[in-house]
Amino acid sequence: MGLVIIFAIVTVLAAYGGFSALKNKNFLGAFWGVASFFVFGWFTVMTIINSGFPTGTH
Questions:
Q1: What gap in Å lies between CA 25 and CA 39, rounded to an integer?
Q2: For a Cys-Cys bond, which of 6, 7, 22, 50 suits 44, CB 3.0-4.6 Å?
């Protein structure tokens, strides 16, 4: 379940990095940031579908 949280954090950071690089006109950095966003976003969605959303403690 922790994997979903890690993937989600990396996805958010990749989106921020890609947007920041695009704002600074760093197109190579923006490409890798956006590509990482899509790849890790896909991993996040598929992990949630496969393993379920992490729940709190009982």
A1: 22
A2: 7
- Which three-class secondary structure state does DSSP give residue 42? helix
**Quick one: how far is CA 1 from the chain centroid?**
16
Contact (CB, 8 A) for 39 and 21? no
Determine if the pTM surpasses 0.85.
no
- Whole-angstrom distance, CA of residue 30 vs CA of residue 18: 4
User: 8-16: long-range contacts (C-beta < 8 A, 24 or more apart)?
Assistant: 8/44, 10/36, 10/40, 11/37, 11/40, 11/41, 11/44, 14/40, 14/41
Q: Which amino acid is at 44?
A: T
